[in-house]
Amino acid sequence: MDAKELRKYFPILHQEVNGHPLVYLDNGATSQKPIPVIEAMDKYYREFNSNVHRGVHTLGNRATDGYEGAREKVRAFINAREAAEIVFTRGTTSAVNTVAYGYARLVLKPGDEIVTTLVEHHANFIPWQQAAKATGATFKFIPLAEDGTVTLEAVKATVTDNTKIVAIHHISNVLGDTTPIKEIARIAHQHGALLFVDGAQGAPHKKIDVQDLDCDFYAFSGHKMAGPTGIGVLYGKREVLEQVEPMEFGGEMIDYVDMYDSTWKELPWKFEGGTPIIAGAIGLGAAIDFLEEIGLENIERHEKHLVKYALEQMREIEGLKIYGPQQDRSSLITFNLDTVHPHDLATVLDSYGIAVRAGHHCAQPLMRWLNVTATARASFYLYNTEEDVDVLIAGLKKTKEYFGNVFS
Ligand code: 7TS
Q1: Choosing from 70, 184, 219, 362, which is the catalytic residue?
Q2: Pocket around ligand 1: residues whose beta carbon is below 6 Å from it?
Q3: Contact between residue 27 and residue 355 where contact means Cβ atoms under 8 Å apart
Q4: One domain, residues 142 and 259
């Protein structure tokens, strides 16, 4: 895999920001889009824009084929058993809410438990917290190891026969750790609980096989994996999704509507009320083709190399603190530099054309656990290079020098 070669497909990368070539290291927030994705959506709007599942006219059929074809691409991408197990959502956030509202809030009762961790992104935290509050269920946390990772011993010690849902990240957007999903699924299932996996930082960076992982749900967002914003995926095992009620009612999702009651379409359409995200799904399908052409294994290897390359140099910078596991990290590095506020750090880096994220990363409970208010984060994707890392390191050194001079 040649990252430099791949950059050709991403027009946005070829620009200057503040007089410097753009170094985009905010892929954890959203990734850039390659030409085939932009063109697939453009083609839909120019050539066969139409609503889906409705008519018999030619454009409508082409749009339906494009939309349902994308669902099949997602199915193959994560090796789901059938396309009916792939629900299109707006993103990870709406996928979690679909299950929190359509299942947790309807079936949980006092005494039941939802088990999660303090590492979760708010998207995989607040919907469960509020479902627990609404139902009287207990909201429980798996204790973290010193470096913030989740050990199987801790999972075993937390999950009980009262646990109904375990909700956990696959890869953390702050710590970059990978949780042992397959083993956690085994523990959850031994206790009769369902496992919901937040794969927002998993699916873009790693080959996912939901049958092998044996999770009950797996959620991810198109925009973090070279696809467009506004489209995401809720995977669920058929027998589990059958038990989830739709939370959006209206057109497209019904079977039969009577004066005082209605019935729903079969899976997955009962969850896709209203005109669906047609262009988004087509764009996501093109993104999947693009990623598969490169190979998820190659992408993962490339990113791990960049993280290792960056970590080696970052460890040399005095006063730079890195959060999360020191080994076995996925595609991102979260850090703080001396007492420089991460927003100031990100602002100085931006003046050199380097885009990193600063803030609480939608993980306030984790920030509190880490005893910080905010951090900076550099997150990589397939088009980042060693040169990008070199520019980041030089930027960090200049920032240190700048603030050192200001404060001394
Ligand atoms: N879960 C994780 C682990 C995430 O990293 C994010 C977004 C979400 C859920 C929510 O995804 P959405 O597409 O529904 O918004 N993470 C980030 C981030 O780290 N910086 O900006 C968004």
Answers
A1: 362
A2: 28-29, 91-93, 121, 123-124, 169, 173, 198, 200-201, 221, 357, 361-362
A3: no
A4: yes
